[in-house]
Design goal:
about 325 residues; alpha/beta; Isopropylmalate Dehydrogenase; 7-stranded mixed sheet
Length: about 325
């Protein structure tokens, strides 16, 4: 397996990416990790005793979060993100991972790799933690803001196949994000999409309200990119706010501090279950190659999780399965 890592993209690049590569290289010696970026920056971080399954491919430009995505991909052709995409396009890597500019990564997927045959709009997927510890795959999380019902149908097919191939779920339960559970609820997009999903060769269980997404009612939740991105940020914000409030209350008095000391192991377990690092690695489904998005603030542990997810997807031939599904084979 060969995985290209955009070593210069993300808030904690390149240190976190190099650290994760060193750890992953030791754990999975069968995987070739390709760090894409400035060798003068990366080589000192690797040190003299770097494993033989880590290599550096030079790329002297960086796409920043402030860059306009499409312009950046077209103009910064020697950027770490674009070079990583070309490695996949040219068959020199089986997948790429980036924690950099999300819009630019989607543009790289479309402009460098292109869409899979039969896919109209790729979708960005993400795993949310659930009460049953199985997680729920949500897409689209922002790749396509103005979706059509047919796009939601394609997301459902791709999401169901992803959970089956990567997570080993035999009949993934697919839900449609909506304002109510009744079939007639929603806007024109969700009403038409509901009918298409009912007829699709998937395990469609109907509409799911946002408040129930984390309950474990479904394995895949489908929505347009506008709603999905709002859902993603609302859940992240709610989790952050809850932990801040708990921290304030548990340090407000001597008595609460004593209680916090007793409950600390329980709070740590809750934090770990809600930690995005444990679910890091969102695939851009529908492009002609395996492109995985890491959270912008990914640390070394989160990046290693993304590498693990990517290895599984490669091993289960995810892109080939998607290509077969939408080419009619």
């Amino acid at each position: 397996m060969r995985i290209a890592i955009d070593a210069m993209g993300g808030d904690n690049a390149p240190h976190a990416h190099v650290e994760s590569a060193l750890s992953a290289a030791a754990e999975w010696p069968d995987t070739q990790l390709i760090l894409v970026g400035n060798p003068e920056v990366l080589q000192p971080l690797l040190g003299k005793g770097a494993p033989s399954n880590i290599t550096i491919v030079p790329a002297l430009e960086i796409i920043d979060n402030t860059d306009e995505p499409v312009k950046a991909v077209r103009r910064k052709t020697d950027s770490s993100m674009v070079v990583a995409g070309r490695l996949v396009k040219e068959g020199n890597a089986d997948a790429m991972i980036s924690a950099g500019n999300t819009g630019a990564l989607m543009a790289t997927g479309l402009l460098v790799l292109g869409r899979l045959k039969g896919i109209e709009r790729p979708g960005l997927a993400a795993i949310f933690p659930t009460l049953d510890n199985q997680g729920v795959l949500a897409l689209d999380m922002g790749a396509n803001m103005d979706a059509k019902p047919e796009h939601l149908l394609q997301y459902a097919l791709m999401g169901s196949l992803y959970r089956s191939k990567v997570h080993g779920i035999s009949k993934p339960r697919v839900g449609l994000l909506n304002v109510g559970t009744e079939a007639a609820k929603g806007n024109e997009l969700t009403k038409v999409a509901f009918g298409l999903l009912e007829q699709a060769p998937i395990n469609f269980i109907g509409n799911i309200e946002a408040r129930d997404v984390l309950d474990g009612q479904c394995d895949v939740i489908i929505c347009d990119g506008f709603s999905g991105n709002i859902l993603l940020k609302a859940l992240e914000g709610a989790a952050s706010t809850i932990f801040k409030l708990l921290r304030e209350e548990l340090t407000a008095s001597f008595t609460s501090k004593l209680a916090a000391a007793v409950l600390k192991p329980s709070f740590r377990r809750v934090r770990d279950r809600m930690d995005y690092n444990e679910y890091n690695g969102a695939p851009l489904l529908g492009v002609n190659g395996l492109v995985v998005k890491g959270h912008g603030s990914s640390d070394a542990n989160a990046m290693k999780t993304a590498i693990r997810q990517t290895r599984t997807a490669i091993g289960n031939r995810l892109i080939a399965a998607l290509a077969d599904e939408f080419s009619g084979k």
